[in-house]
């Protein structure tokens, strides 16, 4: 499995049918091992292929993913937030995706949602365009009715930082 995963890590950076086929084959072989599946999600989420946010959105619907499972969320959503290319996309699509997920996740598991919103905590370190886009998502999260104390605390501290 280690060799297969290493090869997959190299291949996942190249969009196309071969990538998709190999990812599907790997999942078919390892779908019964939840730790391997979590690594499989993270590997795809961290990929620097263009517009990977759409692939991550599709993975939210994958039969092996469950938004109620914190480890799945950390693998897929947390992995995506670790992608400097796609999370910090100049068009704000990565920030928008995370904002939507945080609001949705807050209703399911506020502790996990607050951990995910912390990806915005260093928004002031980026260029003005990215700052404005990240700040807008933090403000959107803060304006959500029924926001948990957990998410409110992290989001408000991030905005004030």
UniProtKB/TrEMBL annotation:
Pfam families: DUF3458_C. Residues 1-160 form the Peptidase M1 alanyl aminopeptidase C-terminal domain. InterPro entries: Peptidase_M1_pepN (IPR012779), Peptidase_M1_pepN_C (IPR024601), Peptidase_M1_pepN_C_sf (IPR037144). GO terms for cellular component: chloroplast. Transmembrane segments: none annotated. GO terms for molecular function: zinc ion binding. This is Peptidase M1 alanyl aminopeptidase C-terminal domain-containing protein.
């Amino acid at each position: 499995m280690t060799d297969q995963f290493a090869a997959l890590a190299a291949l996942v950076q190249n969009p196309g049918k071969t990538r998709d086929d190999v990812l599907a084959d790997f999942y078919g072989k390892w779908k019964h091992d939840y730790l391997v599946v979590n690594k499989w999600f993270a590997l795809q989420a961290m990929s620097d292929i263009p517009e990977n946010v759409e692939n991550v959105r599709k993975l939210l619907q994958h039969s092996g993913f469950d938004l109620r499972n914190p480890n799945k969320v950390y693998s897929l959503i947390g992995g995506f937030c670790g992608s400097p290319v796609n999370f910090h996309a100049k068009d704000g699509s990565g920030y928008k995706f995370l904002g939507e997920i945080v609001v949705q996740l807050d209703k399911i598991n506020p502790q996990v949602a607050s951990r995910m919103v912390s990806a915005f905590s260093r928004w002031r370190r980026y260029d003005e365009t990215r700052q404005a886009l990240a700040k807008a998502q933090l403000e959107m999260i803060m304006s959500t009715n029924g926001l948990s104390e957990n998410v409110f605390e992290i989001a408000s501290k991030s905005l004030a930082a």
